[in-house]
Amino acid sequence: MNPSSRLRAFQRRLLAWYHTHHRKLPWRQTRDPYRILVSEIMLQQTQVERVVPKYHEFLRRYPTLEALAQARPRELRRVWYPLGYNIRPMRLRRIARRVLRDHGGHIPDSYDGLIAMDGIGRYTAGAVLSFAFEQDAPILDTNVARLLARYHGVRGNPARSRVRSRLWRLAQTSIPAGQGYLINQAMMDFGATVCTARAPKCPSCTLRRQCRSFPFDATARPPAPRRGPQRSRGALARDVAR
Q1: Which of 93, 168, 180, 228 could form a disulfide with 146 if both were Cys (CB 3.0 to 4.6 A apart)?
Q2: Which residues are catalytic?
Q3: Residues 98, 159: one domain?
Q4: Half-sphere exposure of 226 (CA within 13 A, CB side)
Q5: pTM for this one?
């Protein structure tokens, strides 16, 4: 199968899978850039199931950028507990203050505008553009990187610039025109639930016929380079932001 056909098969099969199997997550019920940003910062280095209740609690206490900008540090950290990495809520507050000061209270809808803010890297900028503004912006969290590396047979450590750059290019080319929101959510869900790090569901995988790593043996040593990223979402996000 030629590369164009493999890409179309990837897009078609993944979107069909997502239509039936997508996870129902609260931040998928909104296009509010503020709420999307809160969810993305919370999800850095933290599992989804731990984030969901704190996401609701945080937004009840700080429903707007204005409320967050006025938050007292001690109370902000208390509301954030027990997610950890307490620098994250303080970064959110700094972002809120900058948006109010420099952008008239509107979170930027451009990559350059987002990336200029402390605490927003390449992944987070892409997520906000994709999920809040429905732009065809690529994302590359741990799950997406693992899926793309396995499907396309990308070898090497994803922390290395050459490999990382290739994965970002694949993330961009994976987006069908006008469907960035759907394909990005689909890749994240598929990596989280099917193309998992330690026990991928290869026999039932809808992508297996075109996947260059099928069948994948997660216990084999080597091929460590084929395994895709094992790093946390936040750690990879920081890497790919540089």
Answers
A1: 228
A2: 40
A3: no
A4: 18
A5: 0.87
- What one-character DSSP code corresponds to residue 197? S
Residues 6 or more apart whose CB falls under 8 angstroms from that of 224 comprise none
Query: How many other CB atoms are there within 10 angstroms of residue 194's CB atom?
Result: 19
44 shares a domain with 125: yes
> What's the domain count of the chain?
2
Domain limit, last residue, from 103, 131, 159: 131
State the Cα–Cα distance between residues 232 and 189, nearest whole angstrom: 15
Does 165 lie in the same domain as 85? no
175 and 184 Cβ atoms separated by less than 8 Å: yes
pLDDT in tens, 73-123: 999 999 999 998 889 999 999 999 999 999 999 999 999 999 999 999 999
Alpha-carbon torsion angle 27, 33, 37, 43, nearest 10: 20
Looking up tokens 């599992």 gives 47
Structure tokens at 144: 């997406």
Tell me the two tokens of residue 155. Answer: 């070898």
Q: Which domain holds residue 227?
A: 3-23+138-240
Compute the distance between CA of residue 17 and CA of residue 13 in angstroms, rounded to an integer: 6
Show the CA angle centred on residue 189, arms to residues 28 and 231, nearest 5°: 115
